[in-house]
Amino acid sequence: MRMTDVGVMQNFMRMCNDGWLQGYHERNGGNLTYRLPQADVALMRPLLAPVPGTWTPLHVCAPNLAGEYFITTGSGKYMRNVLLDPEGCLGVVEINPQGDSYRIVWGLANGGRPTSEFPSHFLNHSVRKAATGGAHHMIYHAHPVNLIALTYILPLTDRAFTRALWQSATECPVVFPGGVGVVPWMVPGGAEIALATSKLMEIYDAVVWAHHGLFVSGVDFDDTFGLMHTIEKSAEIYLKVLSSGQPVRQTITDDNLRAIARDFGVTLREALLGE
Ligand code: 13P
Ligand code: ZN
Fold it and tell me: Is 11 touching ligand 1 by the criterion CB < 6 Å?
């Protein structure tokens, strides 16, 4: 068996390509990480490098991820190339017993490194693992056009973004009843934006990066890709309405949102409702 025959690796590769097909990943834009369940680590163990790479500090620390393994996209790699060259574009990394360094145990051939956003992914995994009792395994970052466009015209608040998205497609409050958080513009790729994002991930499973993109967290591939897709589609509807030049005659009201929540058995973050 080769690494690319392992089921989770196939799902990971498919999701990278799905994101490319949706237009979320110009050039090397966006990145994806998957915290491997123990059973998959056991399956992969005979396929890992006999001599792992050296430990590299992450400059952030998460003791609850000590000893975990992740599949990650590589820094500077293009999502559109993942299916053609998985071993060059992707890697499996192991976290050290202190939870502050990683080493490459498969892939990222020819000197590749994990995504430059690995610190954000890592801290987000840490808080989502804790918040969901270990249920969440995925963090996905993309550059969806319509959502990014909204960060130029909406106030950069959790409330403004959540309400715009909830009101733009009836299924939205069911898919992300907790709403979305917003991080103001920050320099990407480091510990500072990682800390700001993971703070919001304590309560949200989706966080907007102003003028940059979106981070989402989920249980599995369908759940996580579906959340990215739903949020971006809602942003597209909102933007189309604004761009139409027509006055908004009607929308989904707060009481409508509460009625959806009641019938679908979800709890909306009430602080985001009301005038
Ligand atoms: P990487 O190529 O390092 O994953 O960076 C892409 C990106 O989207 C940075 O935010
Ligand atoms: Zn990015």
Answer: no
| Ligand index nearest the alpha carbon of residue 73 | 1
CB distance 190 to ligand 1 below 6 Å: no
For 137-158, write each residue's pLDDT tens digit. 999 999 999 999 999 999 999 9
CA distances in angstroms from 59 to 120, 123, 186, 193, 241, listed in the order given = 11, 11, 17, 12, 43
- Closest-lying ligand to the alpha carbon of 16? 1
Quote the pTM value. 0.98
Domains annotated for the chain, with CATH where assigned, are 1-116 (3.40.225.10), 140-275 (3.40.225.10)
Q: Write the pLDDT tens digit of every residue in 39-88.
A: 999 999 999 999 998 999 999 999 999 999 999 999 999 999 999 999 99
Assess whether the C-beta atom of 117 lies below 6 angstroms from ligand 1. Answer: yes
d(CA 136, CA 124): 10
